[in-house]
Each structure stands twice: as C-alpha cells, then as structure tokens.
C-alpha cells in the first residue's frame, strides 16, 4: 500500500516518494535484525526478553508505519489540491 501511495507523487515530489520507501525499507530491516537478535538471545538462554517487551516493540513499529503512511497521504492530498483556494492544507508550511 505504501508503494502505491508513494507512486502518486508527481514531478518534483517524486523524491519524497523514494525517501518514504527508503524509510519503510529501513524499518523492515531493523525489525528483521531485532527478531534475529532476540532469537539468538533466547537460544543463548536469555529470559529477560518478555512477550510484553516484544508486544511493545511491534506496537512501536506499527505506529511508525502508520504515521509515515498518514503523512504521505496528506502530502499527496495537498499536492492534488494545489491552487484550490477553498482547500485547507494539512501542513502549515506547504509541500514546496
């Protein structure tokens, strides 16, 4: 879904779409390395990593991904309504 939204950015804003995709990839990489580290720690006998900690970690990633998608959608919305005097922009400083 993020990729489809990023592709909606036009012209000079295409770089924003690339940036968003790079951030999403980095979050995925960090998530994968976290799970690998946790698995190695558990194999080594570390019992300090709790399910509660893991649930918090997953929730943090979910909130981050949701925020990125929301900002991307708002940016696209502002771009699509550029020049519309009756439209209220999502960002005070615009998208330029």
TrEMBL record:
Name the UniProt record assigns to this protein: Uncharacterized protein
Origin organism lineage: Bacteria, Bacillati, Bacillota, Bacilli, Bacillales
Domain of life where this protein originates: Bacteria
């Amino acid at each position: 879904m993020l990729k489809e939204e990023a592709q909606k950015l036009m012209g000079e804003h295409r770089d924003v779409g690339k940036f968003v995709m790079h951030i999403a990839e980095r979050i995925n990489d960090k998530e994968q390395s976290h799970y690998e580290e946790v698995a190695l720690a558990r194999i080594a006998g570390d019992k300090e990593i709790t399910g509660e900690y893991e649930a918090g970690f997953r929730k943090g990633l979910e909130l981050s991904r949701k925020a990125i998608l929301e900002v991307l959608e708002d940016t696209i919305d502002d771009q699509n309504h550029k020049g519309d005097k009756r439209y209220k922009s999502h960002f005070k400083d615009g998208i330029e």
